[in-house]
């Protein structure tokens, strides 16, 4: 493959409020979907294994961009932009188009891999990708993505006045946060979440053991069994085609300090195992914004090559559906019950060793995840087989 152009790559930390936090990902950018490396599944997996992050993202411009360019109307409201200049070393590729409102957008094919397998959805990989593309294409407002498993979704550039406090720069017109919109779970699946009684769930005992939960952990003696139960709910869904679980714990449980048997969790479910709880702050409406739910979580996925993830965008997509759209709303603090779900915001922290955080809201058929991304490296991939010939 020595006659092919080198592939640029970036390495980033996503959902990283502070330096040294966030989930790390690599991004590899291909010139087209006809590039033989893009078409070579073994190559994608090899590169992903070499980076050895929980996600390596592979993207290529969607051929639909060129199709739209060739068939655009003369009307400026639907015209395809002739070019989108890059901030550094401008590039004219004809791949962006303008919406009716004058918003520039571009579409990309996207795939995500762990060192072991392909991912059905990856939030931290997607938000990292959006961060780089918005920097490379300063006129771009919307990025459309298409994935063979997850389907179509998008990311939108945030302006300074839409940023969280302290991360917007009005002088440069930039925001250090990025927002992505990932697809909801199906209505059918959402309707089943929050209905998994731990007293009757067949996985309950195995989960208690794997999570290091003793019945009534931290609860006084003499209480009824229901009162002693640390698990409030066990809900099942599919991550791709893999059995996955959301386990809701009571707020008093020391989630970060649990001594988890990850192998045992992998024997229970082959997809994502998301352990979550609402913080005590959420119970006190005066302590935070009255429309904010504060949650904590940990996520394990040994079945797809992730022991414990640092911070997981896809898991928080499912958690946003869980807390705000499903029968699990019955667990919400009283001051949040009955409110329009789209008016509520989840402030989420993942209690991994590195840690990370994001905010989550509901949109129309999507979950909006917002967070900080930090780039810590870049370069080009070389063909190591060619290196051997030198």
TrEMBL record:
Xref: Pfam families: PhzC-PhzF
Gene3D superfamilies: Diaminopimelate Epimerase, Chain A, domain 1 (3.10.310.10)
GO molecular function: isomerase activity
Any single GO CC term annotated in Swiss-Prot or TrEMBL for this entry: cytoplasm
The keyword Isomerase belongs to this UniProt entry's keyword annotation: yes
InterPro entries referenced in this protein's UniProt entry, alphabetically: Phenazine_PhzF-like (IPR003719)
This protein's UniProt keywords: Isomerase
The keyword Isomerase is assigned to this record: yes
Listed SUPFAM superfamilies: Diaminopimelate epimerase-like
Family: Belongs to the PhzF family.
Protein name per its UniProtKB record: Phenazine biosynthesis protein
């Amino acid at each position: 493959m020595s006659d092919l152009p080198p592939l640029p790559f970036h390495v980033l930390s996503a959902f990283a409020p502070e330096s040294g936090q966030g989930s790390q990902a690599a991004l590899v950018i291909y010139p087209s979907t006809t590039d033989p490396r893009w078409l070579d599944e073994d190559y994608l997996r090899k590169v992903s294994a070499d980076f050895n992050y929980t996600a390596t993202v592979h993207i290529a411009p969607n051929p639909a961009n060129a199709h739209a360019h060739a068939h655009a109307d003369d009307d400026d409201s639907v015209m395809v932009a002739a070019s989108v200049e890059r901030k550094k070393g401008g590039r004219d590729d004809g791949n962006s188009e303008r919406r009716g409102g004058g918003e520039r957008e571009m579409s990309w094919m996207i795939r995500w891999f762990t060192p072991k397998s392909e991912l059905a959805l990856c939030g931290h990989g997607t938000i990292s990708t959006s961060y780089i593309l918005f920097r490379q294409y300063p006129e771009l407002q919307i990025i459309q993505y298409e994935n063979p498993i997850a389907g179509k979704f998008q990311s939108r550039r945030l302006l300074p006045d839409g940023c969280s406090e302290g991360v917007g720069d009005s002088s440069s017109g930039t925001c250090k946060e990025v927002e992505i919109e990932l697809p909801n779970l199906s209505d059918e699946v959402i309707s089943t979440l929050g209905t998994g009684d731990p007293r009757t769930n067949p996985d309950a005992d195995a989960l208690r053991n794997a999570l290091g939960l003793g019945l009534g952990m931290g609860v006084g003696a003499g209480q009824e069994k229901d009162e002693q139960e640390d698990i409030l709910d066990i809900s099942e869904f599919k991550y791709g085609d893999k059995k996955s679980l959301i386990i809701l714990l009571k707020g008093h449980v020391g989630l970060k300090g649990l001594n988890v048997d990850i192998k045992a969790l992998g024997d229970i479910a082959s997809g994502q195992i998301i352990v979550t709880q609402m913080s005590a702050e959420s119970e006190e409406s005066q302590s935070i914004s009255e429309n904010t739910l504060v949650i904590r979580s940990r996520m394990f996925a040994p079945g797809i090559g992730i022991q414990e993830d640092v911070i997981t965008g896809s898991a928080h997509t499912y958690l946003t559906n869980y807390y705000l759209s499903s029968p699990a709303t019955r667990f919400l603090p009283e001051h949040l019950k009955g409110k329009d779900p789209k008016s509520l915001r989840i402030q989420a922290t993942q209690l991994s060793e590195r840690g990370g955080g994001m905010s989550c809201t509901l949109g129309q058929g999507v979950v909006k995840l917002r967070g900080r991304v930090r780039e810590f490296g870049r370069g080009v991939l070389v063909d190591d087989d060619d290196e051997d010939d030198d």
